[in-house]
């Protein structure tokens, strides 16, 4: 059997592997934040999550997008930056909401206790 005879199978397989690798590259950075997001939402406690990490990742991905305008690189890396920015903004939104609601609950409790003393 000739090498050219298998070409009809190898070309689609290479394309499929290429698309799979690009998809893993784009969404691979987001996957670790899914359990954290669900855990923070479930427990309504964001104490173990550092918002400084979100800040660093936001700045890094914004700089990568700005760099893309000057010197084009592969589009999966651009999409990875866009997806990561959206993810970090969602994480910051959730953490802010949880921390504000927890602080309001503490203030309400202290107000209720001081009112009866």
In short:
By secondary structure, the chain is mainly alpha-helical. It is 80% helix and 0% strand. The N and C termini lie far apart (92 Å).
What would you note in describing this structure?
The protein has 117 residues and is mainly alpha-helical. Helix 1 runs parallel beside helix 4, helix 2 packs parallel to helix 4 and helix 3 packs antiparallel against helix 4. It starts with 6 loop residues before the first helix and ends with a helix.
Name a few traits of the molecule.
single chain; 117 residues; mainly alpha; 80% helix
Give me the secondary-structure topology.
Blueprint lengths: L6 H21 L5 H11 L7 H20 L4 H42 L1
Helix pairs in contact: 1-4, 2-4, 3-4
Could you give a short account of the major beta sheet? none
- Overall pLDDT confidence: 88
How many angstroms separate the termini? 92 Å
Coarse shape: elongated
Low-confidence stretches: none
**What is the β-strand count?**
0
Structural class: mainly alpha
Helix content: over 70%
Sheet-strand content, in percent, reads under 5%
Count the DSSP helices: 4
Question: Can you write the helix and strand succession as a string?
Answer: HHHH
Radius of gyration: 23 Å
